[in-house]
Amino acid sequence: MATEIRVPTLGESVTEATIGRWFKKKGDAITADEPIVELETDKVTVEVPAPASGTLQEIAAEEGTTVEVNALLGMIGEGEGAPAKKEEKPAAKAETAKTEEKASGGKLVDVNVPSAGESVTEAQVGEIYKKVGDSVAVDEPILELETDKAAQEVMAPVAGVIREIVVSSGDEVQVGALLLRIEEGASAGSTQAASASQEKASAPASDEASSGRPPAPAAAKLLEERGMKASDVQGSGKQGQVLKGDVLAAEGKGAPSQPVEKPKAPRAPSGTEDEAREERVKMTRLRQTIARRLKEAQDTAAMLTTFNEVDMKPVMDMRSKYKELFEKKHGVKLGFMGFFTKAVTHALKEIPAVNAEIDGTDIIYKNFCHIGVAVGTDKGLVVPVVRDADQMTIAEVEKEIGRLGKAARDGKLGMADMQGGTFTISNGGVYGSLMSTPILNAPQSGILGMHKIQERPMVVGGEIVIRPMMYLALSYDHRIVDGKEAVTFLVRVKEVLEDPERLVLDL
Predict the structure, then answer these.
(1) Where is this region: Disordered (predicted)?
(2) How far, in Å, CA of 130 to CA of 49, rounded?
C-alpha cells in the first residue's frame, strides 16, 4: 500500500511553496520521520519528514516547482529499496570539513557553508574577517553568512593558517559549498608549499588594503585599468575599503603637479566624477526580504494612521519609585516596553478587530496576543514576537523582550522567535523620532508607533504646566478596522499609560 507525501500547513497566510531540493531519489529507502524534501516559502524553509518507512516510489513535483498546501509531492511504497547515500549535513562549526594531505606533510581542511537551524539552503557571504595567510584558532569566527532572516558566523573547525579563500563578500553560496581552506597546525610565519590554484587565490587577497576588505567593484576595475595595487591606495570607505574616488585621488597625487588655471565660469557637472564618489553595494538577502514585505503591505492593505499623545509622567514616576526594587527582585530593568506591551494587550481585548487578520473573504479573530517588537539591527529591521503577552506580568515581558533583543542584535534569532505575531509595537523614539506613520507587518491589521518623549507646555486643570509628552501613532488596515475602533484603541492605550493602576485593577 502506498503512502502519500503532501505539502504540510506552512503557517499563517502561507498558501504555497517552492520545492527546494529532494534529499532522496526514486527507489531510495526511507525511514519514517526522516527528512525527505525541502520546501521554501517567502517566510521560511522547512524540511518535510517521511510519513512512513518504505521506498520512494514516485516524485510528483520536481525541484523548482511551486506547489500549494496539501498538494501531492510523492509516494512511498512498501519494501526496503536501494540504500541511499547518507548525506552529511554541515553544522555551524563546519562539520563537513574535508581534509587532504599536502605535499609538504601539512593538512588542508575545507570549510564549507554550514546549514542554518531553520534549514535555509543558500546564503550571501557578508564580512570576511580574515585574509589568506592569517592564523586562526579553533572556534574563531572567520566570516559571516547572511540569509533572508538572520546572519551567522562560520567558525574555524581547526587551528592553523588560512591558505585559500574561494569566495568574496556579496557572493551567493549554497549549503555545503566550499568557502576556504585552512592548513591545520601551521603558524602564520610557516613557509609551506602551495599549489598553483592556492597562489592564484592568494594573489588578490595580498593586494587588498590593510583592513583585509577588498576594493569596491568600481575601484577594482579602475585599479586594473591603471595597473595600480589596492595596497598603494588609502581607502576612505567602511573599514578602510578602497573606493573609486580613492583610486582617482591617488592617481592624481602621483602625477606631476601643474599649475591649474582657475575656471572663469562654473563647469558643468561631470557624471564620471559623481560616479567616482558613489559606492554600489548589493542588498543583503534580509534587506531584500524587508523591502518586498513592506511594499506588499502597502499594496495589499488599506492603511490609515491615527494619532494621539500621552502624558508619560505617571509611568516615569512609577519607574523612578520602583526601578531599584524591581531590578533587585526580577533581575531585569523596568523599562517602558513592559508598560506599553501590557497597555496594548489591555486595549486589544476591548477592540479585537485590531488583533485580527484577513484571509481571503474571512476575518480571523485571534483570542491571544502575540506582540511583535520591532528591533533595528545593523542588518535591518526584524520583528521577534513576545508570545501570549496578555498572560505575562510586566517583569516577564521585560525579560522576554531583553532576550529577543539581544538575540536579534547577535543574529541568533530562530524562526520560532519571529512567527505568529498578531500585533506589532515599533519604538522609533529610541532614535529620536518625534512622529511617524509605521507600515503594517502583514498580515496583521495594526501596528503601534512609539516616539520620543519631549517636554511640552500642557494645560492641566486650567494651568499651563510642563509635561513629558509622547506622540502615539496607530497604523491600521481600514478594510477590517473602522476609524471609530482605531481611535478607541489608541485612547484605551493612552488611558492605561496615564493611569497605570488600571493594569492592576483590569479597568
Answers:
(1) 80-106, 190-217, 252-280
(2) 38
Q: At CB < 8 A and 24+ separation, what contacts does 401-409 make?
A: 401/335, 401/337, 401/338, 401/341, 401/373, 402/332, 404/373, 404/375, 405/373, 405/375, 408/375, 408/377, 408/382, 408/384, 409/375, 409/377
Look at phi and psi of residue 227 and say left if phi exceeds 0, alpha if psi is from -120 to 50, else beta.
left
d(CA 450, CA 448) in angstroms, rounded, equals 7
Q: 308 and 452 in contact (C-beta within 8 Å)?
A: no
SS3 323: helix
| pLDDT single digits (tens) 375-410 | 877 666 778 899 999 899 999 999 998 888 888 877
pLDDT for the residue numbered 198:
45
Q: Which domains does the chain show, CATH number per domain?
A: 3-77 (2.40.50.100), 99-206 (2.40.50.100), 214-249 (4.10.320.10), 286-505 (3.30.559.10)
Under-70 pLDDT residues of the chain: 1, 10-14, 41-45, 79-106, 116-121, 147-151, 188-213, 216-218, 236-239, 241, 244, 252-271, 285-286, 378-380, 505-507
Cell matching residue 388 = 501570549
Confidence (pLDDT) at 109: 86
Q: What are phi and psi of 314, to 5 degrees?
A: -60, -45
For residues 402 and 327, the answer to whether their CB atoms sit within 8 Å is no
**pTM for this entry:** 0.50
CB 170 within 8 A of CB 125: yes
- Indicate which residues carry an active-site annotation: 478, 482
Which amino acid is located at 323 in the chain? K
What pLDDT is stored for residue 120 in this prediction? 59
Rounded to whole angstroms, the Cα distance separating 456 from 377 reads: 31
